[in-house]
Amino acid sequence: MKLQITLFLLFLYSWIGHSQIGPNDDAIYLDSLNNLGNEKNFKFIRVVKEYAEDKDLYDVYFYSRSGKLVQRATTSNKFFMAFEGPYIYYYENGNKQKMETYSDKRVNGRQFEWYENGSLKLETDVQYDKKTKNSSTKIINYWSANKEQKVINGEGEYEEIETIPNSNSAKFSVKSSGKIKNYVKDGLWKGKSEKPSYTFYEQFENGKLVSGKRIDSLGVEIQYIEVLQKPKPKNGIADFYRFVGENYNTPAVQGLKGVIYATFVVDKEGKVADVKIIRDLGYGTGAEAIRVIQKYDQWIPGSFKGEPVRVQYSLPITIQSNY
């Protein structure tokens, strides 16, 4: 094991080069969905600087397979990424692609996007409501690829690209266009998707979706009133938490306490899949978490524009041994 770790670090030193991974840093493989990967399927390598130290904030770097920096951020939790402050994405040429601003572990405040040539594309403002736990987005300014400003101070025509959440491999996107009025979507919006192939029409009033309709390549129509519906337990999220708490068997180890971090996917049929442990406390705590999560099968699947989709969940489990 020690030899494998040494070889892995040597590989990273030569592969990333100038980033200089230090003895107190942590580096792991991530696949295309940001799950733990391996040397064959990884898309990124994530490096948490000064991981071995006890700090309020940690610098996090993401490198592509070619060794270039593609993302950087700061996190308040080195085990389970809880981002704070700017989260910057980069193009392959090194120019900024997007800057998200996090506050209290949520995207909140001013956000920016750029074209690959460095010209500004989009300025938005995201506000997270702690009471409703919902976010709202204001479109402030938008420029086309030829630098023509299409939205000025919340008024104009806008072209949007939405990523279908948690696709199996490539992150497929859908494109739509319509009017921005008083910083939000208004009137009829039209769009299309290539994979899967469909067109859609959405009617908005003051930023709220009134109705949506998608038409697939065979002419089949699906009506919807929410763009994204997250998976949910049939008896509510409290029932899921209760089930985990009542069925988790804590190892009989004196003084054992801490938090396990797990991720899992609710698939298109509402079944739990791809349960993975991000942080394990040892003594079989991770394996027990996988067993309990897989056992709960009372989920309603999520959907995107009326189409069932796979959606990933994160779950912290607090362990406190009574022995």
Per-chain topology:
Blueprint: H1 2-16, E1 26-30, E2 44-48, E3 58-63, E4 69-75, E5 85-90, E6 96-103, E7 106-107, E8 109-114, E9 120-129, E10 134-143, E11 149-152, E12 155-163, E13 173-181, E14 184-193, E15 198-205, E16 208-216, E17 221-224, E18 228-229, E19 232-233, H2 237-247, E20 257-266, E21 272-279, H3 285-295, E22 299-300, E23 302-304, E24 307-309, E25 311-320
Antiparallel strand pairs: 1-2, 2-3, 3-4, 4-5, 5-6, 6-7, 6-8, 8-9, 9-10, 10-11, 11-12, 12-13, 13-14, 14-15, 15-16, 16-17, 18-23, 19-22, 20-21, 20-25, 23-24
List keywords for this structure.
323 residues; mainly beta; TolA/TonB C-terminal domain; 17-stranded antiparallel β-sheet; three-stranded antiparallel β-sheet; 3 helices; 25 strands; 11% helix; MORN_2; TonB C-terminal domain-containing protein; TonB_C
Quick take:
The protein is mainly β and 323 residues long.
Textual characterization of the structure:
It is built from three helices and 25 strands. With 323 residues, the protein is mostly beta strands. Among the domains are: 1-78, no CATH class; 232-320, TolA/TonB C-terminal domain (2-Layer Sandwich). It has a 17-stranded antiparallel sheet that branches. A three-stranded antiparallel sheet has the order 18-23-24, with no helix packed on it. A hairpin with a 2-residue loop joins β15 and β16. The two termini are 31 Å apart.
